[in-house]
Amino acid sequence: MKITKILSFPMKYQLTDVYRKMFGSEKKEREAIHTREAWFAGVELKENVLIRVDTDEGTYGVGEALAHPVSGETSEGIVRMIEHFERILRGTDPCALAEIHQKMDSLIVNGSNGAKAAVDVACFDILGKASGKPLWSLLGGRGNIPFGCCAHMAREVPEAIARKGQELVNKGYTSLELKCVGRQESIESDCDRILALREAIPDKISIIADPNQNWDVPKMALSALNGPLEGIINFFLEQPVPATNPGGLKEITQGTEHRIIADEIVLRPDEAQNVAANRLADAVSFKIMKNGGIWKILRGIPMVEHAGLEVRIDWVQASRIMDTAAAHLHTVLTRPAVDPAVDYHIRLKEDIVAEGGIRIDAQGVHLPDSPGLGLEVDWELVNRLADL
User: Fold this and answer.
1) How many CB atoms lie within 10 A of CB 334?
2) What angle separates helix 246-254 from helix 218-225, to the nearest 10 degrees?
């Protein structure tokens, strides 16, 4: 089997209110605005790029790339990079993932991880279809057993946080990630939200506080963790300091009983190895888009788990195609920190998956058992959204 063509479809999804409230709408007077919050407020359509990898045997696979200022990739740039990837990958066996990544990395070593991830997922889709197995089975996971889902929560006043947390738990969510701001507003205000949420929901529900690197002074972060947050149950803090400050991350990890998750500091397998070897954190967050695809994450997970650290699979900010891919990947974990975040697609009004894909209900996340990703794309809808 050989790759014959890679097609790009620049998507423009309409957004739900859940997307627009990503960083919160109920704020106190003079509260700081997170830099990402200002960006979310101005977005009218969510721009991603769907790709299709075709082969000479008629089997094709699908993947999706994220256009987002955090990743530094734009829709136009992704389309252009996919054109370059098509040129160097044409004639390559789509199941030879090591060769495919070597060729993509030879073109651009660091960067374009979203475009790489889209190609990677499409090739895994083909690999599953060619073998007749669902991706979770091909990876060695157990996808025939439902598992829980993590919900991301907007930054709101404590009372609103408590109400929303109860609603999400009643819907069946098993862990909640709360967006925080840190020094741009105050760590104390973040603590008020965290404590309100913890009091409102059962202890068995994990809470992940994510300041997106903005609890950036280790002494201040530790003052909160060992002060108002001391003793709260089942609590994680994700990447409190900038990725450029591994020493600060380690200082916080060693100075608190709470579990610290490394996120932005891990873009490549060797960076995951560095976190594990130097005990910079207690867990590592892998994202298909951030890390350049499933194949690279599969190289990083064993390094982390064998060192005794935990792993989480975080959301991909794309359609149900990529949420399904992330859910397949979660099934290989032997030391999961929390359940995966695979519900991003509810933030998009259109669902380009016509059949199959993951299904989320009060019992958890259900994976398909058909080959590959286990889904069929609504190509008529894709073409309509790509032409907006």
Assistant:
1) 10
2) 20
Residue 29's pLDDT is what?
45
Fold of 138-374: TIM Barrel (3.20.20)
Does an H or E element contain 97, and which?
Answer: helix 97-107
pTM: 0.94
| Alpha helix ranges (H) inside 43-96 | 75-89
| Beta pairing class for 46-55 and 3-13 | antiparallel
Contact 176, 207 (CB under 8 A): yes
Alpha helices in 108-261 (DSSP H): 113-131, 135-138, 158-170, 187-200, 218-225, 246-254
- Written as six digits, the tokens of 118 are 């889209």
DSSP per-residue letters across 188-201: HHHHHHHHHHHHHS
pLDDT given at position 30 = 42
Backbone torsions φ then ψ of 320, nearest 5 degrees: -65, -15
- The CA distance from 153 to 9, in Å, is 30
Domain borders along the chain are 3-15+44-132+380-386, 138-374
Q: How many CB atoms lie within 10 A of CB 84?
A: 14
Using 50 as the pLDDT threshold, list the residues of the chain that sit under it.
24-33
Question: In the CATH hierarchy, which fold is given to the domain comprising 3-15+44-132+380-386?
Answer: Enolase-like; domain 1 (3.30.390)
155-177 b/e with 16+ CB inside 10 Å = b? bbbbebbbebbeebbeebbbbbb
**Same fold for the domain at 3-15+44-132+380-386 and the one at 138-374?**
no
Structure tokens at 384: 């309509």
The pLDDT of residue 24 is: 47
193 and 158 Cβ atoms separated by less than 8 Å: yes
